[in-house]
Write a structure and sequence with these properties.
Length: 225
């Protein structure tokens, strides 16, 4: 649950730039699963302390249901990826087009302060400029009406200072490093791997919990008889 919250809070700006909800959905699923597991754990503690076989049965069933849901979700995600593989590049193209549109149309526009902040953070954190390349900014609405004939936003600069975007030489901006979309995709993949690994870890703990529950249930049963 903590990893899911960290993912959403730490990089919430990036999520506002995504047309796809896969990234945030994965984090929310992990948060929800963690909350349910925590409540189930409290129930398990009560069952263990009170040594009540009825509560242990409920605890085991809840663990089993959560485990099966996680396995089903993982299987469906794998099947979906296999089925969509020929079309995945179309989704990727949509993401590229959406990010470029937000950069050229919404950057530094009234009422779009959150988009401007997200783009500035994205370019500085991932060391990139523009969606596909720094040339994308030539189409930017803000750039075209800039009184100082700015070429790129200051957040494209390797050392950001006021007005540094007036010069687009590779020594000054992230020009040869490439656009932000490929680095954003890499960032998303890395964090989805983290989320998936944590989910796998939770599943393994649940298996251990079910085994322990069975052993405890059996020992209580033997004591009664």
């Amino acid at each position: 649950m903590a990893v899911g919250i960290w993912t959403l809070v730490d990089k919430s700006d990036y999520i506002s730039l995504l047309s796809s909800n896969t990234y945030s959905a994965a984090a929310f699923i992990l948060i929800g699963s963690g909350a349910v597991v925590m409540l189930t754990g409290i129930l398990g503690c009560c069952a263990t302390i009170r040594e009540q076989r009825g509560l242990l049965r409920v605890f085991f069933v809840l663990l089993l249901l959560i485990f099966l849901l996680e396995i089903t979700a993982g299987f469906l995600a794998y099947v979906y990826y296999q089925e969509c593989f020929p079309l995945c590049y179309q989704l990727n193209a949509e993401l590229r087009a959406d990010l470029k549109e937000k950069m050229v149309q919404n950057y530094q526009q009234p009422g779009q302060e959150h988009i401007t902040r997200a783009i500035d953070n994205l370019q500085q954190d991932l060391k990139c400029c523009g969606s596909n390349s720094s040339a994308d900014w030539r189409e930017g609405a803000w750039i075209q009406i800039s009184a100082d004939r700015r070429l790129v936003p200051d957040s494209c600069c390797k050392t950001p200072t006021v007005g540094c975007g007036l010069r687009d030489h590779p020594s000054n901006i992230y020009k040869v490093e490439g656009g932000c979309i490929s680095k954003l995709e890499e960032f998303i993949l890395q964090h989805l791997i983290i989320l998936g690994s944590v989910g796998l870890g939770i599943a393994l703990i649940q298996i251990a919990g079910m085994i322990f529950t069975c052993c405890l249930y059996q020992s209580l049963k033997e004591e009664v008889y």
